[in-house]
Design brief:
single chain; about 70 residues; mainly alpha; 2 strands; globular
Amino acid sequence: MADGILLERAGVPAVSICTDSFLMSARAMARTYGFPGYEFVTVPHPIASLDEEQIAGRARDVLPEVVRILGVES
């Protein structure tokens, strides 16, 4: 979260991605950094135990949301 917020403040488009177990922490961090409306994407927890194909699947699942947040036309 912090990296995404700091990149956005520096003018670099970014989207933070965290697992749903850290949703409350992510929102609290955005508030702490003075960016309570910061949009980010969540994926189901856990991810550490997933293999490469499963991680790729999670990435494909959230890609439309990432693109929307970035404001990119597909």
